[in-house]
């Protein structure tokens, strides 16, 4: 989204060293280094990337100035790239005076999503201020269309989703749209944010109107920035959580759930639903202790090798604001490899955002035909008539590439049936074609969705690994297959690649063949938890150990029966108040893991802001990392909050790590960075003490001495007591 956030939801951290994979431009041949937007912009938030009809890649971002000191807001800036690494500014989608009829004069445009729908390019975009009311944040989802991603873009004069009054006053946050074409060819739009949550509505066949009733898919006060793709029969809902824009304390991150139905319910890896008070969410992307924090609001794309990539924004913790402190958060565009391990997506095998040189995406191959000229010398006509004109190949019969290919590979083309009964590709003697209502690969076939118009441009992709061939047809090439067919080959595919049209002409474009990507099968390991360090730990079996030290002692905290019982205080530690008690111990030297088990009955659904209890890594009242189970409005979350001094005042943000139970196990894994001496604390949580979800990393400067302790604060009404079973340190 843009810059606004409803107060209360924050937290996250992750610490892992990246081990071989992919970062940004100017890093050498076939390498790149983040941020990929550095060549044209200092900030490019909420990015989405599509491959255009011309074979180039187009990125769209939220309306902001692009450069420090520029002072001029770009209205949905567009960038263009041939290789997904080196980008150039390609203009704004909308002129300064261009807006739909329902938009107020001062409206901004946030978080665009661009897709091919019904044969044209469609942009869904947040309109922040409408003429519905005097409220300056009566948001709506607008829609615009264009003949190409570069434009010109023309607004429709009615919103796809109009402003929605909220039961708590004001208007629900009708922002962050994302479209998906489902397996049956129906179109869906996901939208929403913290105030109101994420919902999905069906769209009309032309994609310009919402129809039917919206369905909530992710709980309010936790998620926004939804993005959905379909893979192996599952719909995956990516959603950003925590605060996007807290400058150097931003802990924005991406979580995911999946469903067999585009309307949900979406559940995470542990079976926890995303649309309930104790909402789940499997981590996909979270900060790891390097340069980047606030990693979120993602989209997904696929390169020519079939490798998926995640595009997102992040904040350089050393340069968090575009200009003056506490103004526009500087959020450049990053790109990283998205791996699928055991059916779940994760960035760089779980290592998180990259800040070193990495292998670049594959954007060309042995065959890479864009048909920008009439030259067909790289092809031979087997039969029929073929010509290249206007950037497309048109003909009927068979046209074969003179480049022979083989091995594990991905081939694809964009095609339209302008008169043909069937059209497609022939690979090593196997025909893969669409037409007559079916997608067919050799003897394997599947029905296309009813009403699918093959006169509209679609992408046909074929992947061969060993003797397994899989073909998919999709409208936007963005994880939106409307048909998939699999074929077991009698021998490896090798030889000729041909385009074919039968019964009349067809158009082909962007015909490519590239070596198929190699899938990553194993995630980077979680922090190692060794034996208990008894001299630093306390089981609370004999009163409070003398090694404990209080900051603002609370006499209500007592130890008996093997537990520390601490009534939640009407106090807090964030901001300038600093009234809450903190119970601390010295930590061991070197690397360690601190763990506690805390029971805190916060109920569900009701508003109990911001009662919480858990672990804290503490330097002083203005520099700490707090891992607690907490009530945030109607939700119950595990928040990993962080406060540090910046520009003369304390700044607080955070991230979300797992799903709390009434009893929750919490861990902070500490390591000292061998390069710069920083203290890195990665957070983990568990509902059973056995299965752990690991999240973000917060860092403390070298030369500080963080202590580890417990907290129980955030509000005394209704009265509730936190019960800690122990504090243990593990080597």
TrEMBL record:
Active site: 46, 224
Domain Beta-xylosidase C-terminal Concanavalin A-like, chain residue ranges per copy: 537-729
Record keywords: Glycosidase, Hydrolase, Signal
Keyword Hydrolase assigned: yes
Biological process according to GO: carbohydrate metabolic process
Residues flagged as site, Important for catalytic activity, responsible for pKa modulation of the active site Glu and correct orientation of both the proton donor and substrate: 176
This protein's pathway: Glycan metabolism; L-arabinan degradation
Signal sequence residues: 1-26
Any GO molecular function: hydrolase activity, hydrolyzing O-glycosyl compounds
Superkingdom as given in the UniProt entry: Bacteria
Record-stated family: Belongs to the glycosyl hydrolase 43 family.
Protein name: Family 43 glycosylhydrolase
């Amino acid at each position: 989204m843009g810059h606004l956030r409803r107060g209360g939801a924050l937290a996250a951290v992750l610490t892992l060293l990246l081990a071989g994979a992919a970062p940004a431009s100017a890093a050498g041949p076939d390498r790149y280094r983040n941020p990929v937007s550095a060549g044209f912009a200092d900030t490019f938030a909420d990015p989405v990337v599509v491959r255009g009809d011309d074979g180039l890649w187009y990125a769209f971002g939220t309306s902001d100035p692009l450069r420090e000191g520029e002072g001029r807001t770009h209205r949905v800036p567009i960038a263009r790239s041939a290789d997904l690494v080196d980008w150039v500014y390609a203009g704004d989608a909308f002129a300064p005076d261009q807006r739909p009829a329902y938009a107020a004069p001062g409206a901004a445009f946030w978080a665009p999503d661009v897709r091919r729908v019904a044969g044209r390019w469609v942009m869904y975009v947040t309109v922040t201020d409408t003429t519905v009311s005097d409220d300056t944040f009566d948001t709506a989802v607008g829609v615009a269309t264009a003949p190409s991603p570069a434009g010109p873009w023309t607004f429709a004069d009615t919103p796809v989703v109009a402003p929605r009054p909220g039961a708590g006053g004001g208007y629900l946050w009708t922002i962050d749209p994302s479209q998906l074409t489902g397996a049956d060819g129906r179109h869906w739009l996901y939208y929403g944010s913290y105030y109101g949550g994420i919902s999905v509505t069906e769209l009309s066949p032309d994609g310009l109107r919402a129809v039917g009733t919206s369905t909530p898919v992710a709980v309010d006060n936790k998620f926004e920035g939804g993005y959905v793709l379909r893979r192996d029969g599952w719909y995956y809902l990516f959603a950003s959580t925590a605060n996007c824009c807290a400058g150097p304390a931003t802990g924005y991150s991406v979580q995911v759930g999946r469903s067999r139905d585009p309307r949900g319910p979406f559940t995470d890896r542990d079976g926890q639903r995303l649309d309930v008070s104790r909402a789940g969410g499997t981590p996909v992307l979270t900060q790891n202790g390097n340069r980047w924090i606030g990693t979120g609001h993602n989209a997904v794309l696929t390169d020519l090798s079939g490798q998926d990539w995640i595009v997102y924004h992040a904040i350089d913790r050393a340069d968090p604001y575009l200009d003056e402190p506490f103004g526009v958060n500087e959020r450049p565009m990053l790109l990283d490899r998205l791996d699928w391990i055991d059916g779940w997506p994760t960035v760089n095998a779980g290592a998180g955002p990259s800040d070193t040189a990495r292998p670049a995406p594959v954007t060309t191959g042995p065959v890479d035909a864009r048909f920008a000229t009439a030259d067909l010398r790289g092809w031979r006509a087997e039969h029929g008539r073929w010509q290249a004109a206007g950037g497309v190949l048109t003909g009927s019969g068979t046209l074969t590439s003179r480049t022979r290919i083989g091995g594990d590979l991905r081939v694809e083309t964009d095609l339209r049936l302008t008169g043909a009964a069937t059209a497609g590709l022939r690979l090593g003697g196997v025909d893969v074609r669409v037409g007559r209502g079916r997608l067919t690969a050799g003897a394997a076939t599947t029905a296309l969705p009813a009403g699918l118009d093959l006169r509209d441009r679609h992408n046909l992709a074929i992947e061969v690994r060993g003797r397994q061939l899989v073909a998919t047809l999709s409208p936007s090439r963005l994880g939106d297959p409307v048909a998939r067919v699999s074929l077991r080959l009698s021998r490896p595919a090798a030889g000729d690649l041909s385009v074919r049209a039968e019964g009349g002409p067809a158009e082909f474009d962007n015909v490519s063949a590239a070596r198929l990507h190699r899938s990553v099968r194993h995630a980077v390991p979680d922090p190692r938890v060794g034996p208990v360090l008894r001299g630093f730990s306390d089981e609370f079996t004999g009163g409070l150990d003398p090694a404990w030290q209080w900051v603002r002692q609370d006499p209500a905290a007592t130890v008996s029966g093997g537990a520390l019982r601490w009534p939640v205080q009407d106090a807090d530690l964030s901001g300038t108040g600093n009234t809450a008690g903190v119970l601390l111990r010295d930590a061991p030297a070197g690397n360690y893991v601190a763990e506690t088990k805390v029971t805190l009955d916060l109920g569900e659904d009701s508003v109990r802001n911001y009662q919480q209890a858990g672990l804290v890594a503490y330097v002083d009242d203005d520099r700490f990392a707090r891992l607690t189970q907490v009530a945030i409005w109607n939700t119950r979350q595990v928040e990993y909050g962080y406060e540090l001094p910046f520009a003369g005042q304390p700044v607080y943000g955070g991230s979300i790590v797992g799903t709390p139970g009434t009893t929750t196990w919490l861990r902070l894994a500490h390591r000292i960075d061998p390069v710069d001496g920083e203290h890195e604390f990665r957070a983990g949580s568990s509902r059973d003490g056995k299965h752990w979800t690991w999240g973000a990393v917060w860092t403390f400067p070298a030369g500080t001495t963080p202590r580890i302790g417990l907290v129980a604060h955030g509000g005394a009404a209704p009265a509730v007591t936190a019960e800690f079973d122990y504090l243990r340190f593990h080597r």
